[in-house]
Amino acid sequence: MSFKCNNFACRCITNKLQSMATTIVRRPASFRLRSDLLDGLKRRAARENRTLNNYVESVLLRVVYDEPNEVTKAAIEEAMSGHNPNKVYTSVDDMFNDILNED
Length: 103
What we know:
Layout: H1 3-21, H2 35-47, H3 52-65, H4 70-81, H5 92-100
C-alpha cells in the first residue's frame, strides 16, 4: 500500500471518527404558530429546497448563535463611539455618495 493510499485511509477514518464524536442530539418539540407564519416558513423552506424542520432549525441557530466575538464587539463599540478617526456610515447610500464624490 502506497503512502498516498495510507494517508487517504487515515483521513477517511479520522473524518468518520470526528463525525461520530460530534453527533448532535435532537429532541422533539411542539410549537403553536400563527397559520400565516407557518405558511411563510413553508414557502421559504420550499424555495431553498429544504425541509420545514431543517429551515426552522437553521433560522433559530442564526438567531441564537450569530453573535459577534469580543474583538468584533470592541471594534463596533469603537466605531460607534466616535473615537475612531475613520468615518462611520449609518447608511450604504451615504457611503456610496462619498465614494462617487471623491476627488
